[in-house]
């Protein structure tokens, strides 16, 4: 089970396959690297795939210091992990919060990015009502633990089709949400404080693929299309029957779109 010490934080990661241009996948909140299991299985047949547990999630360290969690901090951890692995340029992918980290990584370590895969995410900062909701969730987790918010968060992560027809996937996602309270609180803080990166989008000069589930209520297709169209030459794939976790809910379509994207690089 591989771990790396990055700036004093013990980071767990998955690392499968081989290839000169690795794909790095950054998970959603409040999940962990194992959410990428369908992509690890599929894409590792053609390239190396690296998926870290971000600080506070999975088997990685979970410091109690709330200000220690920022998008730039997560991005710095990923860059340090790649240095530990002696990896140079990568295709960088992120879903939801992982997309926020990817935007930050691109800003701070853009020279390492050969291509971008951004799924079910946003370029804007949180509006006031979302900030208030995140603060309420932080208070609930601090008081009662993650169980206080898991059901509410789970309902927003999965599409109607999945919740009605795929109980095994609902149970799988619930298991992936089993993470330390400090990780929940810290990630919510990082999301509350993340910057609006809309103005940076026209300057993205690497090939970019955007993906979104057609039932995603958190980052709907119109929202994703809105920022995707600002990135020169980017492509959009809308995946039927999927909610916010399109990589799990429509794994075959997600994998096919990413495989086509990698082939074109």
How would you explain this protein's 3D organization?
The protein is α/β, with parallel strands linked by helices. It has one domain (3-264): Rossmann fold. Helix content is 43%, strand content 17%. The protein has an eight-stranded mixed β-sheet with strand order 1-2-4-3-5-6-7-8, sandwiched between helices. Strand 5 (90-95), helix 3 and strand 6 (113-119) form a beta-alpha-beta unit.
Compose a concise summary of this entry.
With 265 residues, the chain is α/β, with parallel strands linked by helices.
CATH class: Alpha Beta
Reading the helices and strands in chain order gives EEEHEHEHEHHHHHEHEHH
Overall form: globular
What fold name stands as the CATH topology? Rossmann fold
Radius of gyration: 17 Å
CATH superfamily: Alpha/Beta hydrolase fold, catalytic domain
* Number of E-type strands: 8
Number of domains: 1
Count helical runs: 11
Notable characteristics:
265 residues, alpha/beta, Rossmann fold, 8-stranded mixed sheet
SSE arrangement:
Elements: E1 3-6, E2 9-16, E3 23-26, H1 37-43, E4 49-52, H2 71-84, E5 90-95, H3 97-109, E6 113-119, H4 128-144, H5 150-157, H6 160-165, H7 167-176, H8 181-192, E7 208-213, H9 221-228, E8 235-239, H10 246-249, H11 251-264
